[in-house]
Structures are given as structure tokens and as C-alpha cells.
Design a protein that fits this description.
Length: 340
């Protein structure tokens, strides 16, 4: 659930090999894997990777609902796995074809969005939170309520993500991120209308650049993306608010329309090699639930509690759940909020 826009183009052909090589078509979030790792897979399996990116889970879903074919491995977030599976769009995972599943942390082996990992394999996990310029604040930020502070008028950005934004309001009001009470939704909408007076915009693509340049003071964003900024500029910080946050898992899945099933399974197994997972973690700053890889990652990353949070932080955070038909109710309120 991330989405860093600087390095990878929207579509990449990673090999200049001849067209007769078998092709693996990947549909992922942008800059979510080290390019050299993809090249290594091409070399080892004598294939050609075609790499395409999407900006949101809803974009991914819309593309498949419109009849997209040809992708072999996709990277939906937790709740979207449930949505895609319920619409019969995913191929069941054959666990015996992925021996490196033995390195998966048991805490991720039976998630609520995909019991028994029937249709997906966890790739990364993380949290949404606050990325901010420490030069603009006297103290650490620890509450979502900072986004209602008029002192930062026009210097703050929230994600252009319906569930994430309503999740902030629900958490401030003391409700679950997955609340489906229309009265609570109306309360959240009123709270967000008040906040919008101070908002620069809703944005998931360029807000990181604006924080880095100093044009805004704080952004609502995903943990690993902000840590990529921190690596570049030490004045940037990240916090998971005390009210709680979205805990997400981005996953690897195989669409039913995949053209190269065997190569897709080999790719997922390749990603789960501990040395490969460790390199990905060190590059994108998102944790992966690979127990063996933890021994190989940068100690600075492993010891950071905003990347690998303690149990109490995880306890007050929530996975997004598929809201079924109630999603359309929320979408209507979201559209009205953005227009008005």
C-alpha cells in the first residue's frame, strides 16, 4: 500500500532479451522492489519480466473488473485479496510449489482477509501514520488531531484514499476503522469537512516530494515511503498516532487469467528466499514477515520501533476489511467530501 513515485517508470521491460523468452507480467505498486532483484530472476530463470504499476487497490480492482488479462503476479493489499477472491479472480495458491513458505512468520499464516493463505502470500506489512518535518514542530507528533491544527493551514496533505482518510476520523471518534454505522459515518464526514479547511489537498503520489522540498509540514502516509524520505533527509520523521492506525499487508497473488502459472509460482518462491527478502527490506524500508530474513537486515532498520512496532502498537491498529455493499455508501460520502 505504498507508493513512491521517483524511480520506476509506469511500465518497465526489464530485459532486452529476445521476444522468444518466456515472459512474466508483474503488476505492483511503484518502487516496491529492487530492480536488480528482478534482473537476477530473469537471469536465473531465463525469462523476460514486464513490470507495470498501479496507484491504488481500487485502480487494480477496476482494471480487472474491466477484463484485464495477462498479468501473472499482482500485489493487492489485504482487504483487496478478499475482494478479488470473492469475485473469483484469483488462482488458488499451491503451497507445495512454494517451498520457501517455511520462512513465513506464523503470525501471518492465517490472516483474517485470507484464512489459510488460500489466495495470497504476504509480501510486506506496515502502518499508515504521520510523516513530518521536524523543523516545523517543537515536539514529536503522536496524534491524528494535529491535522486539525489551523497553525499548519495549507501545509498538510492527507492520502487520496477513502478508507485511510475515514479511518483517521473513526479513530479520533473512538470507532473501528471498519465501522459500518451510517450515523458514525456522518460524524466522521463532519469532522473531515472541518479538517478540509486546512488541507492542501488529498494526494497519494506527490505528497512525499512536497514534504521533502519543505512545501508542506506534515503528510498522512505509509511507513516505508516516509522512511525512504528519512534516509534521504534526516529532518523528516514518522510516527504512528496514539489513537491507532491502519495495519496493512501487501500480498502476492496470481490472477486466474495468468498466462505463466509455473513462472509466477517460481517468482513468489524467489521473493521468499531470506537473502532476497532482506535486500528488499533494506531497500524499501518495509518489514517482511520472513523470520530468516530478519537475521540479515540492517540493524538500524530492525531496531526502529516505527518499522517493527512493539505489540501494543500493533494491538491498537487494525486491518482494513472488505465492507461489502456498504462500500458504495462510503464512496458517496467520500465523493461529496472531495467535491465540496
Amino acid at each position: 500500500m505504498k507508493k513512491w513515485m521517483l524511480l520506476l517508470p509506469i511500465v518497465m521491460v526489464l530485459s532486452s532479451c529476445g521476444s522468444k523468452l518466456p515472459e512474466l507480467h508483474i503488476y505492483n505498486w511503484d518502487d516496491y522492489i529492487e530492480k536488480s532483484i528482478l534482473k537476477e530472476f530473469e537471469k536465473e530463470y531465463n525469462c523476460r519480466i514486464i513490470y507495470d504499476t498501479f496507484a491504488s487497490n481500487e485502480d487494480l480492482l477496476a482494471k480487472f473488473q474491466a477484463g484485464a488479462k495477462g498479468y501473472d503476479v499482482i500485489f493487492p493489499s489485504d482487504y483487496m485479496v478478499n475482494t478479488l477472491a470473492s469475485q473469483d479472480m484469483l488462482y488458488p495458491i499451491q503451497h507445495d510449489k512454494i517451498p520457501n513458505l517455511k520462512y513465513l512468520d506464523e503470525q501471518f499464516s492465517n490472516p483474517p482477509y485470507d484464512p489459510g493463505l488460500m489466495y495470497s502470500i504476504p509480501y510486506t506489512y506496515g502502518f499508515s501514520g504521520i510523516g513530518y518535518d521536524t523543523d516545523a514542530f517543537d515536539n514529536e507528533l503522536n496524534s491524528w488531531k494535529i491535522f486539525w491544527d489551523a497553525a499548519y493551514n495549507d501545509r498538510m496533505i492527507l492520502l487520496d484514499d477513502m478508507r485511510e482518510v475515514f479511518g483517521i476520523a473513526f479513530k479520533i471518534l473512538g470507532y473501528s476503522i471498519n465501522d459500518t454505522d451510517p450515523k458514525h459515518l456522518a460524524e466522521a464526514a463532519e469532522l473531515l469537512k472541518e479538517q478540509k479547511k486546512y488541507l492542501r489537498k488529498y494526494d497519494s503520489a506527490m505528497s512525499k516530494n512536497l514534504l521533502l522540498s519543505g512545501e508542506v509540514a506534515l503528510i498522512h502516509h505509509w511507513s516505508g515511503d516516509v522512511y525512504q524520505l528519512i534516509e534521504e533527509d534526516g529532518r523528516i520523521a514518522f510516527s504512528i498516532p496514539e489513537e491507532g492506525s491502519v495495519l496493512f499487508t501487501d500480498c502476492m497473488a496470481i490472477p486466474k487469467t495468468a498466462q505463466n502459472l509455473e513462472l509466477a509460482e517460481k517468482f513468489i518462491d524467489f521473493i521468499l528466499r531470506p537473502e532476497i527478502s532482506a535486500r528488499i527490506i533494506n531497500t524499501i524500508w518495509y518489514p517482511m514477515p520472513n523470520t530468516k530474513a530478519l537475521e540479515l537486515i540492517d540493524p538500524e532498520i530492525r531496531s526502529d520501533e516505527n518499522i517493527f512496532p512493539p505489540a501494543e502498537v500493533i494491538k491498537r491498529s487494525e486491518f482494513l476489511q472488505d465492507l461489502g455493499e456498504y462500500t458504495s455508501v462510503m464512496e458517496k460520502v467520500w465523493t461529496e467530501l472531495k467535491i465540496n
